[in-house]
Backbone:
């Protein structure tokens, strides 16, 4: 019930393409769904987050799509750039504790 | 505004020793959470402090402990180190505990236990 399942484990996308990472959750009490980006040797950085009362949120090239009935949410990176190469984590929370997905290693090929 | 700082950045200890890691949150943030990150287990929640009180604790043995000071700075301690404690320890701060959980992470402390 506390798990967040993230896929794919790794992803290779051509420069300029769309990167899509998916997450699924079980606990319907979760009310906050952030995405984090982590570069090697750095801590995760908050990228974008959504609450279940909206189905989509866009910030620049990053979009979260949220499907409450399917208990799924996804990150879309438009016009992917080599600088976007990093590990991406989805998470979900109710209150203090973030429950994390396993991460997706994204590589953008020039 | 300065980000979350963690010290030290790297640490090498031997089995059986103890270690103390430090975290200074973003100015004005009162909540500090600690996470352990390993390749095998990913990111796992250790505990969360708000106003010097531990509010929540993850599923870690009692060898892992922490505290928060009146200036919101936090420390975590691991006693009787085991090889499996080798990990990146991350500290995250947020403005208010439980409020949307917008957590901002520090660079982490890389602990190696030999």
Residues:
């Amino acid at each position: 019930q506390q798990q967040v399942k993230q896929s794919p484990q790794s992803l290779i996308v051509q420069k300029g393409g769309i990167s899509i990472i998916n997450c699924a959750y079980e606990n319907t009490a979760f009310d906050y769904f952030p995405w984090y980006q982590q570069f090697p040797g750095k801590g995760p950085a908050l990228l974008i987050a959504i609450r279940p009362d909206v189905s989509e949120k866009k910030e620049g090239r990053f979009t979260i799509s949220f499907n409450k009935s399917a208990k799924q949410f996804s990150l879309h990176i438009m016009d992917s750039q080599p600088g976007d190469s990093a590990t991406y984590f989805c998470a979900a929370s109710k209150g203090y504790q973030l429950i994390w997905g396993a991460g997706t290693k994204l590589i953008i090929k020039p | 505004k300065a980000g979350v700082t963690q010290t030290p950045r790297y640490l090498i200890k031997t089995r059986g020793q103890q270690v103390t890691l430090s975290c200074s949150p973003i100015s004005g943030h009162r909540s500090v959470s600690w996470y352990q990150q390993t390749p095998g287990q990913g990111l796992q929640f250790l505990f969360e402090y708000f106003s010097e009180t531990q509010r929540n604790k993850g599923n870690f043995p009692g060898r892992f402990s922490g505290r928060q000071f009146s200036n919101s700075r936090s420390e975590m301690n691991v006693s009787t180190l085991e090889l499996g404690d080798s990990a990146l320890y991350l500290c995250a701060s947020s403005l208010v505990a439980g409020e949307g959980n917008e957590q901002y992470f520090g660079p982490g402390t890389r602990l190696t236990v030999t």
About this structure: The first strand of chain A starts at residue 4 and ends at 7. The mean pLDDT of chain A is 93. The interface with chain B takes residues 32, 34, 36, 41-46, 49, 51, 89, 93, 95-103 of chain A (CB under 8 Å).
